[in-house]
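Extended Data, panel c. Modelled sequence:
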Amino acid sequence: MSAEFLYCIGTLFLLAGIGAPIAYAILIASFVYLFAAGQSVGVAGKTLMDGLYNSFILLAVPLFIVAANIMNAGTISDRLLNFCVALVGRFRGGLGHVNVVASLIFSGMSGSAVADAAGIGKIIIGMMTRSGHYPPGYAAAITAASATIGPIIPPSIPMVLYALVSGSSIGYLFLGGIVPGLLMGAVLMAMNAMISRRRGFGLEEPVPLSALPGQFFTAFPALLMPAILLYGIYGGVTTPTEAAAVAAAYALLLAALFYRALSLRGLYGILVESARSSAAVGIVIGGALILNYIVASENIPAMMAQVMLGLEIDPLAFLLCVNLILLLLGCLLDATTLILVIIPLFLPTCRELGIDLVHFGVVAVVNCMIGLITPPYGILLFVINGVTRIPLVEIIREVWPFVVVLILALLAMILFPGIVLFLPRLLGYDA
């Protein structure tokens, strides 16, 4: 490991530690390395452009962002929420269950935890606090926890980024996320039920069962989106990137024509906001491409693989250690940085130890999502605090039980790879 690389890493952690945006921290640290190593800044430009031009898959990211924003802007979110209230709102802790089920359903449309939390999450927090049965901190905490499911059930922007750095099949990654996403929903609902009984949260007035078919019919067109996506990819009709375009077009048709809930002015606002969000992700991706070039130049992944193999570490022990590292780093770094910068360091060792990259990828993405609600960084906690003004200290106090059960679900995925690989194997994945 050269002195130039140490300068690079030192600069990165210094800037991140003083609160600089992580994208700028990565870019500046990369330029420090290039200057210290006597390399031309043009290397950064070439690496960046090569990475972008050779990654058609990256087009899926802004398209999924557009689809999520359209879903939030129209009345689609409201219709889905009404269906969820009719379905599970009758049980104790009902609106908490609605929160989780809504995230399970909406995750099939957005692919983004932040989109879920800021969109449908804001609406349901208002419902929970207005009912008078739930403290604001609890409503915000379960919303943040359930939003982590968004990028696990397809479509998933983080899995697109993982496919970019690992070369894994997006289709099999999407399939691998379905059962883990359902498991995460189940443990969150179990914890919500337990807390609701212990703290005596009130019951909501049940929606008559006779109204359930009507609510389902109203929400059915929106519920079709995940099925359309998966059929497009596995039926050989579309590539994953083309499927993202279909998702955006389908969301637009639903909101503008079917539900008639989107104006031209509203669409303009959505496109502007989507461009901003895509640019923010794009800057991080660009910086990560340059930093990954530096890491590869220093031969860091190969060195790590040799060290691990020299220790004769068991694949399961390696997975547990890596996930512990990711959980700790998730307290400080955002998910995009972990996926684009940190996780590629472990991929050569995974290949050497025979660890399946689809299993590793899904587990790593779940781990990164847990990091989104883990203090002190916990970006979802800040997002919900920003859109609801519920004090951050109240959210953090209430979120810990949900963090614990999600970590237990993560441990089950590590110990029992079949949880992740069952559906991919069912549809032809040779793991």
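The two ends are 34 Å apart (CA to CA). This feature is highlighted in the accompanying rendering.
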